[in-house]
Every structure is written in structure tokens, then in C-alpha cells.
Amino acid sequence: MNNCRIKSVLFDLDGTLVDSAEDLTSALNSLLKIRHIPTLPTSQTRAFAGRGSKGLLKIGLNIDDNHPDFLELSTEFFEHYQIHLIETTQLFSGMPQVLHSLKKKNIPWGIVTNKPQRFTDVLVKHIPLLQQAKCIVSGDTLEKRKPHPDPILYACRLLNQTPADCLYIGDAEVDIVASNAAGTHSLVALYGYIPAEEEPFNWNADGYIQHPLDILEWLRDPEVYTSHSLWR
């Protein structure tokens, strides 16, 4: 792998660029309180935050998308999330330095998320550095979303970059599946929302990082972050 080929960087949003777990948990707890169900601490919900309403409704109410009330409950969850969306959500520590460095090196970056656009737009407006993104592809921008490669391929076209010259960073298996299918380089953000039962080192990513600042190190020397043995 030649790190000099990386000419652009794409990020997942929740669990990669921003830490939104507390606000997502507040939305879930608002839903639970109405039903007189005990609320959950962020420490318990954090690993499921990256799965959106599906993951949070599973841990909060033990229902999945096959449940007859899932759509109604998911809609209600999103209504609560609209209220709590920007209470505590912020960039992960170290991410401002990463974004400033990319700008200094003239490496364009963008966002590819499964988050609905109405929420993505509010977050971008709330966090000034996110407004420097050269492209933003949300979960409902196209007909398909991750793990399908189309959103990443579309972002590459918006940046006028070939996939082989692009790095995609995410904290979920769907991120790496989409990246591999699109032909971009991939990094797993191990600091993100990864449930304990998942095995990110089996996702066939190009590298694994424990902190946002590791992105800059990977760009300088990708081999340092290729072996999962570093994190065992």
C-alpha cells in the first residue's frame, strides 16, 4: 500500500467524526420514560449508538425491525432525537487537529453517513468545522445506503477523485463492507461504537486506529496500523 496515493478522505459521522452517543441515549430514554420503562446509562447504550434507532430500540425495548410496532417506535424515537440532537454532540477529541491538517495538506474530505439528511444538516450547522466538508452524503441522499457502495462512490465523484485514491474511515462493519466494495482504502475507528461481540479485525479493513490522531500517522506510514496485534 502506498500512502502517497491517498488524495482524499471520507468519514462516517456518528462514532467516527462526532460523539453523539449521549444525545442518542437521551432520545431513547425520553421514549422509555413515556412508557414507564427504566432508563439506560450511556455506558450501556454507547456500543449500539452506531446502529441508530434499530440498535437503540433493541437494547431499550428488545424489539427488532420485524416487530409490528418497530416503524411507529422508530418514528417516535426520531422525534425525540430531533429535540436532543445537539445537546452534547461534538467532534471526537483530536478530530479538529485531523481536519485542520487535511486542510493544510490540501487533502479534500467529506462525510458519508447513514444518518438522515435532516439530522446531518443540523449537526453540520452546529459544528463549524464540519462545514468545511467538500461533500456530504446522508443516508437518504441516494436510493441505497451503506453497506451498498453507491454512497461512497457518489462522494468520490463529488470530490472528483478515483476510489483507489480515497480513504474511508468508519466504526461499523457496514462502513468497511461499503468501502471495500467501492474500492477505497479503509480504516476502522476502534474508538467508535463497536459492540463487544463484534470482531472488527475480521472486517478486512486496511488498518485500525485507536484515536483520531492515528489517522495522520496512518497517512504517513500505513503499515504501522495494519496489524491488529497492536491492540490485542
Task: Please specify the SSE layout and strand pairing.
Blueprint lengths: L7 E4 L6 E2 L1 H14 L7 H4 L6 H10 L8 H15 L5 E2 L3 H10 L4 E4 L4 H10 L8 E3 L12 H9 L7 E5 L2 H10 L2 E5 L17 E3 L4 H7 L12
Parallel strand pairs: 1-4, 1-6, 4-5, 6-7, 7-8
Antiparallel strand pairs: 2-3
Helix pairs in contact: 1-3, 1-4
Number of structurally distinct domains: 2
Which homologous superfamily in CATH is the superfamily of the largest domain? HAD superfamily/HAD-like
Q: CATH fold name of the largest domain, please?
A: Rossmann fold
Q: What series of H and E elements makes up the topology?
A: EEHHHHEHEHEHEHEEH
By CATH, the architecture of the largest domain is named 3-Layer(aba) Sandwich
Can you count the beta strands? Answer: 8
Give the low-confidence spans: none
Chain-averaged pLDDT: 94
Q: How much helix is in the residues?
A: 25-40%
CATH class identity of the largest domain: Alpha Beta
End-to-end Cα distance: 23 Å
β-strand amount: 5-15%
Task: Write a brief caption for the model.
The protein has 232 residues and is α/β, with parallel strands linked by helices. It is built from nine helices and eight strands.
